Amino acid sequence: HFAVGATAAGGPARIICSDVKDIVFHFAVEEYLMQVAKVSGPVMYLWRPAPVVTIGRHQNPWKECVLSQLESDGVGLVRRRTGGGAIYQDPGCSVFTFISPSGHFNIDRNLEIIIGSLRRLGIGAEKKGRNDLTFEGNGKKISGSAFKHAPDRG
To answer: Which residue ranges does UniProt annotate as crossing the membrane (predicted)?
Structure first.
């Protein structure tokens, strides 16, 4: 699925949605969008993975996971290019990736897009801490964020 709109700066804004569940495929698409694609306006890439644990780039899988249990449960294990802790994801998790042209990277704007989308679905959300999104009222975490800057991107 693919949608195009206009931004205030005049560049096209793109939303790409994928039904593919293979996380390695999605990491490859993200890498392509960051390193190769000509990005003249913001891109939002949305996808959902098959059951998988992703670990940060500096984590030791033998310390973070019970590998035999992952294997017996049919859960994959993949290393992210970003840092952070181990994360379990499955088709119930929506993953969003923002790619911006050089000089236009804005974490707060990106998080506000997600907060606005959740509110339109009737879910009150707010930014807490560094880059987490939580439910309004009880403060329970909805989403964490990881960021990577490419040399020619914002």
So the answer is: none
